[in-house]
Design brief:
This protein starts with 6 loop residues before the first helix and ends in a 21-residue tail after the last strand. It is globular, with a radius of gyration of 19 Å. The chain is of the alpha/beta class. Helix 4 packs across helix 5. Helix 5 links the parallel strand 4 and strand 5. The protein has a single domain, classed as 3-Layer(aba) Sandwich (Rossmann fold). Strands 1-3-2-4-5 form a five-stranded mixed beta sheet, with helices on both faces. The longest helix is centred in the last third of the chain and has 14 residues.
């Protein structure tokens, strides 16, 4: 399950899928709004050389030790976060993109966060409510193995919606006319 954020990522993802000897289902989630987004572009060099990256580290060029906060995200929310970070001139916030949601080895995510000091707050940011996005899956899959006991990234997103009412089915004796 992937959520690519650039044309080069999408290209390398499809190429990887076609060239693999073993076949595995591929679920691609990407919004149409990124098709015409002015910042969501790739150069010909990025398309010609390179490969699919499961995790894209912070591209701001700032050292990891300078970050006071790390935001993990996936998909188009990255562009909104980067725009807001630049607008507010927040040099102390790092944004790490998780491009492949599943399967994602814990050591890969852990190595992406290794550049940041211990104790740096980590937040998962998503557009969906907490009970609908990748946050819950990450918490169940990685548990304390990734962040250590008591150091789980907080979730940032809309509050969970109300649970829908249970659908009532007619019983055999009460069939609608």
């Amino acid at each position: 399950m992937v959520n690519p954020t650039t044309p080069a990522q999408y290209f390398h993802l499809l190429r990887r899928q076609a060239l693999r000897r073993w076949r595995k289902p591929l679920v691609v989630m990407t919004p149409k709004s990124l098709l015409r987004h002015p910042v969501c572009v790739s150069s010909l060099d990025e398309l010609a050389a390179g490969r699919f990256q499961r995790i894209i580290p912070d591209l701001s060029g700032r050292p990891g030790a300078a970050a006071k906060r790390v935001l993990l995200c996936s998909g188009k929310i990255y562009f909104e976060l980067a725009e807001q970070r630049d607008k507010l001139k927040r040099d102390d916030v790092a944004i790490v993109r998780v491009e492949q949601l599943y399967p994602l080895p814990a050591d890969l995510l852990q190595s992406a966060l290794a550049d940041y000091r211990d104790g740096t707050p980590v937040f998962w940011v998503q557009e969906e409510p907490e009970n609908m996005g990748a946050w819950y899956d990450f918490r169940v899959r990685f548990g304390d193995r990734l962040f250590g006991a008591g150091r789980w990234p907080a979730s940032r997103g809309p509050p969970p919606p109300a649970r829908p009412a249970a659908r009532r089915t007619p019983t055999s004796g009460n069939k609608p006319p």
